[in-house]
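Observation: inputs received (chain + flavin-adenine dinucleotide).
Thought: call the complex predictor directly.
Action: predict_structure
Action Input:
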Amino acid sequence: MMTTVNTVVVGGGQAGLSVSHYLRQLSVDHVVLEQADKPGEAWRNHRWDSFALNTPRWQSRLPGVRYGADDPDGFMPRLEIVANLDDMAQRLPIRSRARVVSVARDAASGDYVVSIDDGENIRTRNVVVATGLYQTPKIPELGRDLAAGIRQLHSDGYRNPEQLLPGAVLVVGSAQSGAQITEELYESGRKVYLAVGRAGRTPRRYRGKDANWWFARMGHYDRTVSELPSPRAKFAGKPHISGTKGGRTINLHQFARDGVTLLGRLEAIDGGIIKLKGDLHDNLAAAGRAEVEFGKAVDSYVASNGMSAPAETLPILRDGFDQRILTELDLAATGITNVIWATGYAFDFSMVALPVTDGDGFPIQTRGVSAFPGLFFIGLPWLHNAKSGLIFGVGEDARYIADRIAARCVGAIDRRACAHVAQAHTPSAPKRSRVTTKWADRAMTLIWSSALSLMLDGFATYATGVYPTAQHNPPQADSAVVSADATQSRE
Ligand SMILES: Cc1cc2nc3c(=O)[nH]c(=O)nc-3n(C[C@H](O)[C@H](O)[C@H](O)COP(=O)(O)OP(=O)(O)OC[C@H]3O[C@@H](n4cnc5c(N)ncnc54)[C@H](O)[C@@H]3O)c2cc1C
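Observation:
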């Protein structure tokens, strides 16, 4: 069966819904195809029960969504995010349980044919790929070497401590997911071992404001992908920070003080023995450096802008440095019965049957606009700038892409394709609200250059092809697995 529509949006997460919101405003005929039962699947079924956004409510700017302005500094729990997306979705043309299996281009007409898994083909003038970067939970291959009696879970499938077997837990990965899950587990009374990767630490609050307030003020979120020290820096793990329980700083030294055993990265699994790299102290030092650089950047910004902000000295904890460096861990002797892989996600855009990805498998585009007329991408971290992959910034990118789609109707020779566009539309110029200061630039150069330097061993691993699948595996700055230091986008 072949149907036609002006624009197909693939994926009904926040990015797909945001594009749909603007296309509807511009009266562009379109449909959003979502493979799951309902839109907002990632927040609905792929985060743990106690999850709360680590971005404050004032950063939740999905178009058309009211986010509870009475608590702008609070952090949305998972179900509130889902409710927001449900509210948004009810006004939009969404088809659920429609998995797109291919997007092909008819070279003669320039139209696209989008094929769905039920056999239907849709002919369309524009396609917006909004399938996100956190597509497939990635468990390193060495997970296969764990004994069958050990329960293995990816952070994507972790819900709460009750889900686990009785006994201790090894969490692999210390970026946002691994660190937050570790905290929940040990607070529930579990003995936890945490394999620490290279993610940095940001204090939740500093000098009277949330860290994200400072990042916004210093212009971080408006930094574009071209300003990164390397294209691969966009895959760096996010610093530890949490929005749960009103928002809190996560400090691995505090974990050590509270009884968590910190480990270096995983190198191998041999029977019931886990082999570890002796890099724990280096990794802890790297996390601490990120916090110091953040503090320096804020201090400099405050001074140079004549701001009044209460002085603050962040607590310096060292408990993790007092822990013995372990190079082996005997699972039976330590009572570990569960392993949680907080090791990131793989992504794969091969359903688009066109040469549209780079060597890392990341879409080649400029602000979401590909070289193929009518083919767009949205919702990826650093697609355009630092907020592109966040609820904070996806609306701006969505507006930009919707404008481009509407513009393809203005003066189009093929009026049929644009029959549903009510009125001619001229795209607005991209807005830049950036507050540029030399201190913001300095801060982010410091933070990103430390991420870059940590990527080198991951790069070497990538070349060995540890994950020889169709999914792409660019190096990951903070992976807690040495021999598989190649997960993708991590939170
Ligand atoms: C653990 C974690 C914590 C995060 N915390 C924050 C935070 O605090 N603040 C913040 O702003 N951001 C956060 N993010 C980042 C980001 O906001 C989310 O990942 C968000 O879900 C991305 O939205 P999206 O629409 O781009 O992609 P997704 O939400 O992943 O949506 C993609 C959709 O496409 C569908 N799909 C995929 N393939 C197909 C196909 N072939 N056919 C049809 N449908 C398909 C999927 O089912 C899914 O519904 C976090 C991410 C993670 C992983």
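Thought: report the result.
Final Answer: Residues 280-304 form the longest helix (25 residues). The pocket of flavin-adenine dinucleotide is lined by residues 10-16, 33-36, 41-42, 47, 53-55, 99-100, 130-132, 134, 177, 351, 379, 389-392, 491 (CB under 6 Å).
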